[in-house]
Write a structure and sequence with these properties.
By secondary structure, this protein is mainly beta. The protein has one domain: Maltoporin, Chain A (Beta Barrel), CATH 2.40.170. The termini are far apart.
Amino acid sequence: MKKWIIVLTLILSCTLIIGEVRAEEGEEETFSLEEIVVTASKYEEELSETSVSGEVIDQEDISNKNAYNAADLLKDITGVQINDYSGVAGVKTISIRGSQPEQVLVLIDGQPMNSRQSGQIDLSRLNIEQIEKIEVLRGPASAIYGANALGGVVNIITKSGTDKARTNVKMGYGSFNTQQYSLTQQGGGKKLNYNVAVTAKKSDGHRDIPDNSDLEQYNLFTKFDYQLTKYSDLILSLRYNDSDKGTPGKITNPSPNAQQNDEDKNINLTWKQQREDTDTKVLAYYNQHEQSYYDKYYSNQDDPADFNNYYRDQNGDVYYYDGSERKEVNNINLTENIDRSIHDTNRMGLDFSRTKYYQDHTLSYGTTVKQNEIDSNKNGEHETLNKALFVQDKWAVNEAIIVNLGSRYDDHEKFGSEISPRSGMVYEFNQNLKLHLSGGQAYRTPTFNDLYWPASAYTEGNPDLEPETAVAYEIGSTYLTEQSKIKVSLFQRDVEDLIDWAPGDDGVYRPYNVNQAEISGVELNAKRELNEKITAGFNYTYLDAVNTTAGKRLEYRPYHKANLDLNYRADEFATAVNAQLVDGRTGDLASYFVLDGKVSKDYQINNYDFKLSLEINNLLDREYEVRAGYPMAERNYMMTVITEF
């Protein structure tokens, strides 16, 4: 507690001092165009007027990054940690401020995308070609979004059509025989704009032992925006994703025969009406995700205590993996084992929201109905229905103070009712400097895996679980000038009934509401335009995440994470460098430092515009692991050419 008082005093003192100095100088102007977000309150507002921390990844940021999927766009954001199981085919989930991946709500155009089976979303399956921008909300948001927004929200906003027809073609080739192709057609007229895109990605993967880290992925995206009247639009988007990949597993317990297929179908229909003092939005959606997994291995028939998984190659030779080395064996009686799982999950939802603009108040309210279903050979058949109401008021008390008050009521057919309040305040010292305060409650419901994992000699689900709950607080300040942007935040989140898988009296692992956690930290985010050509960005996160029940740190929550970005652009030439340091990890996980670089050049040939770029990842060729047992790729490259006509 003492360290918090000291740090808080220093922050507030610096805030007041800077505010006084800036008020006297009055020399620099603030940004004329502040970042506009919709995620914090479900309506458009300036990010600096929200009482919670957030960040926006725009088109310029996307073009500067070495990114093959949504996880790559998010990995260097303040307070964000990507749980990377290595390689183009490896699962990539997100943690915000020390949260579990199940506690971060991921939206696409306002639609929830987290799997109700696992509670997570694999960001490696989200293609970046049709991303317009990403809004990241750090901290609980159950007051607006209900369950599973306990750690934060990521809202991915897709590209729309254009008035002028244009075609974009992108081709790329890189290390590990990685190939990328995309074709996008945008256009429209007086009433209808459209966007149609097809993308494909193939790679052999970087894992050699075992060597089944390959990926073959296809995406189809369409979006139509039809103007019904002067004030209203109807937007229809269709998304299809098909992904086949190898799943090699940990180097200490590999699965060289394992393959997984994910097929995702999505329909999103949105009606929006914007009048002078009222905005109304109705969102209806349907998502179907089919996942199939197959693995074949052998066990020692004569020795049940032998826990090695054995395999046969094409020549019939028997072997197993000892760490990262293949060991051949003889004279073992083997029993063939097949692990096959098929999961079909469906989600249907209807979301209504309305915003009323008054002189000093902005009142928003709405309702949500959402149904989740699963049909699985492992989890069985189950369905849940959730209904909710929310209301929030943003009150401009005077020219300097904005107060936010809101709450949401959820009625879940299995877990009953839950109320999630939130309050906050923004205080403007002067045109450059603002202070924000916020506090709120949030919760997360157990997943289908938590509840209905199939019983075996080792694991079993627990249908008697209760939701996790949390109380969170935050204080921070934002300093803006024409050339600079500096944000500092302090946060704390206390979690009750944290779900943890642990052995029972019979030795079987089950999930229990046994743990409590205390997560606190400091975030610093700074961006500066050094001149007309060079921009520098730096962010740092200090995180202290403790399982207070067990009296130890939560795994995979490093004490320190820092990122440095340098971007240079002059006429047709651009270059970008990103450095990331992760330090103070749990257990035997070593710290790591990774450097990435990108160079691009614009050309014009026969009146056609081309962009050629070279991306090099892990420039220093470091050996490291983000998740234990999953080695990251060595130095690798990607060459890309883009043309638009």
